[in-house]
Amino acid sequence: MTFIYILAAILVLLIILYLIAPARYDVSRNILINRPPAVVFEYLKYLKNQDEWSPWAKRDPDMKKEYRGTDGTVGFVSSWEGNKEVGAGEQEITRIQEGSRIESELRFLKPWKSTSDAYIEVEPAAGDATRVRWGFSGQNGFPMRLMMLVMSMDKMVGKDFEEGLASLKTRLESKE
After folding, report:
1. Cβ(51)–Cβ(57) under 8 Å?
2. Is 144 or 53 the better-scoring residue by pLDDT?
């Protein structure tokens, strides 16, 4: 009988922890790029260009990539399969607000299945510069929701976003 009480207490504790754990995540970073917004946006709307500045592309130069559709348009899909660091999945452009925002759905298949909404925003800054914000958000399902009590999605991915944006800045500013 004691075993049943212990098991019930553990189950109640897990349910309480699940209910107080963060249900959503939202991670973003931004950077100032000394290039005109139209130039920056035109470069960013093509998913194939991410291979030139993405931190994950650098972590697995032998990553297998496949593309479906017309790059730079809604419905274009970029899929990848790589090493343990990059896993496998696909990214599909879901919405383009010309000149200001590109939205996509990230579907991770490995190391675990999940779906996130990603975006890149472009806005004019002082002079002829551009502020770029790169981010993603989504729902924490089980067991990730419980894991977020001791882990932070922002800490896990934020540095990757910073690295990618720094690489993007270098790439775009050297194209002058």
Report:
1. yes
2. 53
